[in-house]
């Protein structure tokens, strides 16, 4: 599993112009059984997308078509994650 933490590279109003496309992209990850959870940070300086992926390369490949990346309004940091306690364990 990978946690993809985004950092906005543009003001929030510019990010919001791409938000509907981004949410549709995330819905596609849900349909493929890859999305665990996603949401915007508070304050809105980026977001978090947790996905089912075995490697960082797979995680980045899954996220490559994200409109936020394609439009250049955000970038992602990938962090591997293995739940050991709680609902996801």
UniProtKB/TrEMBL annotation:
Where in the sequence is the signal peptide annotated?
Answer: none
- Per its UniProt entry, which superkingdom is the organism in? Bacteria
Q: Where is the YCII-related domain?
A: 1-77
Q: Which residues form a coiled coil?
A: none
The family annotation for this protein states: Belongs to the YciI family.
What is the protein name stated in its UniProt record? YCII-related domain-containing protein
Species, as recorded: Paractinoplanes toevensis
């Amino acid at each position: 599993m990978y946690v993809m933490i985004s950092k906005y590279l543009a003001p929030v109003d510019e990010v919001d112009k791409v938000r509907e496309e981004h949410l549709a992209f995330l819905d596609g990850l849900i349909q493929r059984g890859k999305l665990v959870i996603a949401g915007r940070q508070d304050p809105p300086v980026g977001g978090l997308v947790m996905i089912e992926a075995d490697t960082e390369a797979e995680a980045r490949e899954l996220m490559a078509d994200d409109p936020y990346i394609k439009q250049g309004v955000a970038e992602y940091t990938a962090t591997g994650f293995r739940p050991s306690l709680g609902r996801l364990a």
